[in-house]
Amino acid sequence: MDLRETRRWLDGHLNLEAGTVTAGVVDDLSLDRMRSLVEVLGDPQTAYPVIHLTGTNGKGSTARMLEALLRGHGLSVGLYTSPHLQTLNERLVWDGRPIPDEELVEVFEELASLEPLVEGEPTWFELVTGAAFAWFAQQAVDVAVVEVGLLGRYDATNVADGLIAVVTNVGQDHTDGVEGWGEAIAEEKAGIIKAGSTLVLGETDGELQKIFEAEGPERTWRRDRDFAAENNRVAVGGRVLDVRTPAGRLEDVFLPVHGAHQGENLALAVAAAEAFFDRPLDPEVVGEALAGLKIPGRFEIMGREPLIVLDGAHNPDAMTALTTTLHDDFAAVPSTVVVLGMLRGRDPDAMIEALELTPYDVVIATTPPSPRARPAAEVADAVLRAGLEVEVVPDVADALDRARGIATDEDRIIVTGSLYVVGAARAALT
Predict the structure, then answer these.
(1) How far apart are CA 195 and CA 217, in angstroms?
(2) Is 91 buried (19+), middle (13-18) or exposed (0-12) by CB count in 10 A?
(3) Phi first, then psi: what are they for 308, rounded to 5°?
(4) 152 with 249, same domain?
(5) Contact 91, 304 (CB under 8 A)
(6) What DSSP letter does each residue of 170-181 carry, written as one string?
C-alpha cells in the first residue's frame, strides 16, 4: 500500500472520534477487540514501561513536557497523543520526531495483514493505537508516554499497564451534566490505575481523589500535598516557576509556553518523571530539556502585528484558561477578533461567556472540519445571545482570512473552540 491506500483502508473502519461518548454510559464499550489486536501483534505494549495520562484538560501539554524531560535525561521515548492537528503522523512520535510516511505505511500494512486474526473488527482508533504500540516496540524505546484518547477505563490505550498513571484533572466534558457527573468521569478516568503503579494525581477535589485512590495504586502523589507549582509568574516568552516534589525543589524553571495553567502541567510532568526514575531530576537537564519545548495548538503564537494565537480550548474550563492567559501574559489591545468553531456536545453559551469579550470585539463563527461539527450558524446564534458582533464564515481558512482583514496591527486574532479548527487554521498559516 502507499500512503493514500493506507489512509483509505484505515478510514474504512468505524471512527468513534466522529461520535460522542458520555462518562458513565459505557455499556457498549469493551477492550476485548483491542486485547485481541495486541495479542495478534505479540503484545508490543509489554515490551517497554508505559506512563499513562488522562484528564479533562492539560493531558496533551503534560505529555509533551514529560516526554521532553525523559528525553533530556537520556532515554529513548515514544509519545502517543490524540487528536492530531494536521497529519496522522503527529500521533506517533519517537524521540521528538513524528513517524515517517514510509514507516507509517509499513506498520499499517502489518496490521492489515493480521486483521483477519482479530476477534471482531477493530475501530479506527484501536488500529492507530495498535500501530503506536507496535512501532514503539520496533524502535526499542526505553519508555512510552501514552495519552488516553477518551476517558480511560475503556479507552483502547488501557490494554497497557501504566507503571505511572497521571491524572491532570476532572472537568465537565463528555458528560450529560446530571447530578454525579464528576464522580462518573472520575470513575472512568480512574480505570487507567493498575495494581503496583504510582498515581500522580492533579485533581484536588477530596471526594474525587478517593475514587482514584480506591483503584489501589502502590503510592499516590497528590497535587498541593506532594507536588506543586509555586511562584508561578509571567516571564518574557513564557513562565518562570518553582516546582516542589517529594524529592525536593526545582527553582526558577523557565517554561517557554504561556499560561499559569501550563506551570501546573509542568509540576505534574516533573512529578511523573521523578516517580518514573524514583529520584530527583537534574536541574540543569530540566532547563535544557524544556528550552526547546513546543506545544502545537496550545496558545501557539503564529504571527505578530496582529498577534495571532491558536488555542484548542474545547470546553469552558479550557476557555477560561485561555482568557486568563490573555489577561495575565499580554497587554490590553483595542479589540480582539475571535475565529470560533466548536463540536456538538459543547455548551456554546458557556464557552462564549468564558471568553469575556467586550462590545469592541468581533467573533467570526466557523465550522470545524469534523463530522461532529456544530454548524457556524448555531455558534453565531450563541454569540448574538451574548450581545456581541458576529459574522458567519463556515470555512476555517476563509474565516481566518476575514479575521486578518478586520484586525489592525494593534489588535489580536484568537482561533479557538476546537483542535479541529486550530488544525485547519494552522494548515492555512504554514
Answers:
(1) 5
(2) buried
(3) -120, 120
(4) yes
(5) no
(6) --S-SS---TTH
Closest CA to 167 of 23, 22, 56: 56
Q: Write out residues in the chain with pLDDT < 70, as ranges.
A: 18-28, 172-179
- Res 305: pLDDT: 95
Residues comprising the chain, all counted: 430
Type and span of the H or E element at 244: strand 238-245
First to last CA, the chain: 28
**Residues 258, 366: one domain?**
no
DSSP summary character for residue 150: S
Candidates 300, 330, 308, 298; CA nearest to 406 is: 308
Return the pLDDT at 174: 46
In whole angstroms, give the CA distance from residue 342 to residue 315: 9
Amino acid at 306: P
- Report the DSSP pairing between strands 307-310 and 412-416: parallel
My answer on whether omega of the bond before 256 falls inside 30° of 0, hence cis, is no
Tally of domains within the chain? 2
β 300-303/307-310 pair status? antiparallel
Q: What is the pLDDT of residues 307-325, one digit of tens each?
A: 999 999 999 999 999 999 9
- CB burial of 273-302 (b: ≥16 within 10 Å; e: otherwise) equals bbbbeeebbeeeebeebbeebebbbbbbeb
* pLDDT at site 173: 58
- Full residue range of the structural domain in which residue 346 is found: 300-429
Q: Indicate the residue type of 203.
A: E
Q: Output the pTM of the full model.
A: 0.95
In eight-state DSSP terms, residue 149 is S
> The dihedral of CA 183, 189, 195, 197: what is its sign?
negative
Is it true that the peptide bond before 394 is cis, omega within 30 degrees of 0? no
- State whether 163 and 284 are in the same domain: yes
Same domain, 328 and 276: no
Report the alpha-carbon distance of residue 199 to residue 291 in Å, rounded: 27
Q: Quote the pLDDT of residue 17.
A: 76
Q: Which helix (H) or strand (E) holds 365?
A: strand 362-365
CA dist 2 and 25 (Å) reads 38
Closest CA to 262 of 44, 24, 59: 59
Residues 6+ apart with CB under 8 A from 279: 247
Closest CA to 200 of 129, 145, 238: 145
